[in-house]
User: What shape does this take?
Amino acid sequence: MYAFDFERPTTIADAVKALAAADAQALGGGQTLIPTLKQRLAQPSKLVSLTHIAEMRGVCRADDGSVAIGGATPHAVVAKEAASLYPALAKLAGQIGDPAVRSRGTIGGSLANNDPSACYPAAVLASGATIVTNSRRIAADDFFRGMFATALNPGEIIVEVRFPVPEKAAYAKFPQPASRFALTGVFVAKFASGVRVAVTGASEGGVFRWKEAEQALSSNFSAEAVRGLSVSPAGMIGDLHGTPEYRAHLVRVMTARAVQAAA
Assistant: This one.
């Protein structure tokens, strides 16, 4: 490690002010940032912890009927407190990493980092959620900009995430055994207006919607509706854990499993 300043604000306003300093970096649960600092891949002059801001923690039903989750809420809290409000989301949170990761990692930190194999981006995109920052609201379809890239501006904080609750939903994940990240994960959400399908872990471009499956499932919400579909391996991740062709195959398999679980 190396020397840096550390601040632990208790209000959003104080956090925004602290992040205005040159080379300041927001710190959520630190599950990605701390290892990055240890490897000297990032060297901010100041870390601003967001975990002691009370208004950014917790899960509740919002006035518009959506499920509102504070950006500094740990995965373990989402898994417990969202269980009766949005069961599919709670189950997803309970599958992230291991107990230590779930107790420290936060939903806001995960989304801001936008790891291409993270679980939350699939839930956010499939649910058509809204990311609420300290300055604006960003629709899920506009938030994710590719691998480790988002629409967030420097110093902008994810204060809250609002999830519309679908009629049916489920997440199916094929985990990498060591990290528990998704080799491929698919979140399916059925609304009155149609079905949304979001895939994580498979594409070099990060999380994406599988539009062909959405059209098929909007007409026939069953696993059979996607069994004849296929995803091109072009642009899929290829590494020691799986080839692009393997991940393309998993997209269809995990989508079918998610639909079965939801139905």
In short: The chain has a mean pLDDT of 95. Residues 183 and 201 are 5 Å apart (CA to CA). The longest strand covers residues 182-191. The two ends are 49 Å apart (CA to CA).
